[in-house]
Amino acid sequence: xxxxxxxxxxxxxxxxxxxxxxxxxxxxxxxxxxxxxxxxxxxxxxxxxxxxxxxxxxxxxxxxxxxxxxxxxxxxxxxxxxxxxxxxxxxxxxxxxxxxxxxxxxxxxxxxxxxxxxxxxxxxxxxxxxxxxxxxxxxxxxxxxxxxxxxxxxxxxxxxxxxxxxxxxxxxxxxxxxxxxxxxxxxxxxxxxxxxxxxxxxxxxxxxxxxxxxxxxxxxxxxxxxxxxxxxxxxxxxxxxxxxxxxxxxxxxxxxxxxxxxxxxxxxxxxxxxxxxxxxxxxxxxxxxxxxxxxxxxxxxxxxxxxxxxxxxxxxxxxxxxxxxxx
Length: 327
What we know:
Strand content: 15-25%
Largest sheet: 7 strands, mixed
Distance between the termini: 33 Å
Structural class: alpha/beta
Shape: globular
Oligomer: single chain
Radius of gyration: 19 Å
Number of helices: 11
């Protein structure tokens, strides 16, 4: 049985996110949401996340934005920065990537320096392409479990001609090892929150790193006890069926062999960001309806609004984590 294989997002009339051809068959629906029927104290399993309700993953969004970009700029002139705006799914623009690059010291191109970077849950690979473009000595491996997003990311990378340094794998880390391991560094931004089986996940990720390998992660945690409404919204539009406390999270990292854990709470910065994101999306309503259509805009508005409400209530926490695998 597959341990981590999210559902294919719900179908819309817009073109598929695969940028070129539509994937021939959808992946199996191993994730089915039980959020509405789960008891508040129920133990989550790997079947408790359902990406079909998560607006930012819906079919066609990235393809529509790429088409919009190519209306004003020839494909031959498109660079990684151009693609970043349509492929980024996290907060604070490229700040997470820049922070990770500084923590990993990717600017060190001296003889003997090794910079094999694993981007776990790379999505459409916006961060990975910027790292590869800004740091030519790096080799970035993007791991994404959703086949249609993996296919789109691979094709976007081919547009900017850095496929030799930004490579893509569609891998379920609960079933198989990432090719090219072990890595020097691992980046993961707003991905771990979708995966309830944290102990197994972090042990698998640790195995993909060299001793002393560095980790930069941005994620959610339970800052305070979650209400029933928090749990409903997290398990639904956010596809987050389980959140540990800070203490539980750190214990899991230590159990997987990570040391020197730095924990930076981000709520004071992320709340204003998600408020601005929703306001900007609504301010561009006419443009968004033209590009994406009414149904997709409604899905995206629900997602952006839900995240804002969660951070406003204050029980959801956001965190930046820096750590190292023990030598």
